[in-house]
Amino acid sequence: MNTLVLAWILLLAFAFLNNYIVYRLLRERQRTELMWISTVATVVPIGLFALWPGALTLMSFPLLQSLGMLLILRLAQKP
Predict the structure, then answer these.
(1) Alpha carbons 34 and 10: distance in angstroms, whole number
(2) Which spans in 1-79 are helix H?
(3) What CA–CA distance (Å, rounded) separates 43 from 22?
(4) pTM of full prediction above 0.90
(5) What is d(CA 62, CA 15) in angstroms, rounded to the nearest whole number?
């Protein structure tokens, strides 16, 4: 299997898993309106990797996902 194909499969699998976890977290707290943050934090790195496939753009995925999760956790705690 080509490494680029493997990178795409793993990127999409982790994107689905991360968004599912965030959705369950937000649904539990009735704050699903914050789901757009997770979607943006997923779509931007996937778009970057689609335009410029490489190690740096692939590494932007966990960084942006972590920043998005931090923002979601901070906003979900506010009443």
Answers:
(1) 25
(2) 3-28, 35-51, 55-77
(3) 15
(4) no
(5) 10
Q: Which two tokens stand for residue 18?
A: 């991360």
What pLDDT is recorded for position 77? 86
Average model confidence (pLDDT) for the chain?
Answer: 92
One-letter amino acid of 1:
M
Token match 């539990």: residue? 28
Q: Count how many residues are written for the chain.
A: 79
Name residue, tokens 């931090």: 70
**CB distance 9 to 56 below 8 Å:** no
Q: How far is CA 17 from CA 22, 38, 54, in A?
A: 9, 11, 22
Taking the alpha carbons at both ends of the chain, their separation in whole angstroms is 48
User: Is residue 79's pLDDT more than 80?
Assistant: no
**Phi and psi based region of residue 30 (left: phi greater than 0; alpha: psi -120 to 50; beta: remaining):** left
